[in-house]
Amino acid sequence: MDTFVRDRLPQAQLLPDMRFDLPELQFPAQLNLVEELLDKAADKGFANRPLLRSSRITLTYADVRDRVDRICRVLTEDHGLVPGNRVLLRGGNSIAMSLAWLAVVKAGLIAVATMPLLRARELADIIDKAQPVLALCDIKLIDELELARKDRPVLGAVIPFNTLDAPGSLAVLSSQKDGGVAPCNTAADDVALMAFTSGTTGKPKAALHTHRDVMAACEAWPRHVLRATPDDIVVGSPPLAFTFGLGGLLIFPMWAGASVYFPDAPYSPESMVRTINEIGATICYTAPTFYRQMAPFAREHGVGKLRISVSAGEGLPDATRQLWKQASGIEMLDGIGATEMFHIFISSAASDVRPGAVGKVVPGYIAKVVDDEGREVPRGTIGKLAVKGPTGCKYLDDPRQANYVKDGWNYPGDAFMQDDDGYFFYQARADDMIITAGYNVGGPEVEDALLRHPAVAECGVIGKPDEERGMIVKAFCVLKAGHAADAAMVKALQDHVKASIAPFKYPREIEFVASLPRTETGKLQRFRLRSA
Question: What pTM was computed for the model?
Fold first, then answer.
């Protein structure tokens, strides 16, 4: 067994306290998550139900198991990979990417999925950190990876996928193998995946998740809040390389016996609405900005059988929630999670929504709002969020572990307020709180107010250093077509904010821009706005 990752786990005193105090969170010492979700699907009556769909093919749970087993043999028999080896995965959302991920984990290897838009320099950093011995890569994305692996002999081979007939492709190699592979007898605390943070604050970190972490995540938010059924058809835009996408578009549907539809090309707002209608999708995952852009098309074409709209990845402005509800008739299911925690830990079902709130803590987790010393603050007071549960932060060989985990609590880096009924209200990333003339201002609250103005398409708000006030509120706004970016518009937006929320929160400076810097997952990169 390759112990590279296990040898680089955080020291015991820096690990989070883990909670498994619900019956459904009790797991055996030996656990393979793909065995649980895929191999045992037949025992649950799912074998002949659809799992992975596209415009060209639909694979049942039994079909997927057979293909996954064949890929496992390529990895272990042809390339001699052993449990604990890292395998880099590079591809967009597709059936081929899903099969590759499942095979890697079933074989006891560690999946290191990477965002499709990463360039050679960024991929090189990941290779240096993760030390993958083999890569499975979409043939269309292979050039940047080949550049990255130069002078990095640890990455011994790159096998292309998403091509059916190229010699040496994963499809050809696996077609020559038999199925019927037994899952690797992994321990519950063996690492199954390495998820690189999406970089809203700069240099990414490698978060590790075990087989038990992933199964525990299935028994938390999906069981108690999402409540998907085997009849659900899931669509969405978050990349499978992002834990929001991996959970929503592969792991959680498998746990429920549902199916996932992957498009032939990345979604646009219009094509997402069209696809929802054409295939009868019932659950959709995407980021708030995308829902906002989808709203006009939903209003025009309807949303067919869609019953659940999940928003996560960044804060959900209430203006966006209401815009989508007016367009689709669906109350958004909001949630906050973290790459370090694998998935959502604060959320509420649509029937329990409270205006402006993300929701309540998901069963299996506990959370509190604390001051800088870790003391819980009175309800109604803004502070830092601290969380414990059946998942937690484990960085690979990174001194920043001590910043995320303190006294056993996970600190996701968000500023929140909790009301007397236990609802959590997102304020900002903790480092995005704006302190101006002694007042605390959350940038997302100002963004929400600006988004309610009919001229504003998108916006981002930061604190700008100021000698007199310490900081001032500054907004970067993308205007809708037909609106002039002039002094009159600045005043109109400032007056609008003053009339919407406390006047001291208005943006004293507004800059009009053509677009906002975002990560591949849609998160606003405020650190880039601050350095602009």
Answer: 0.85
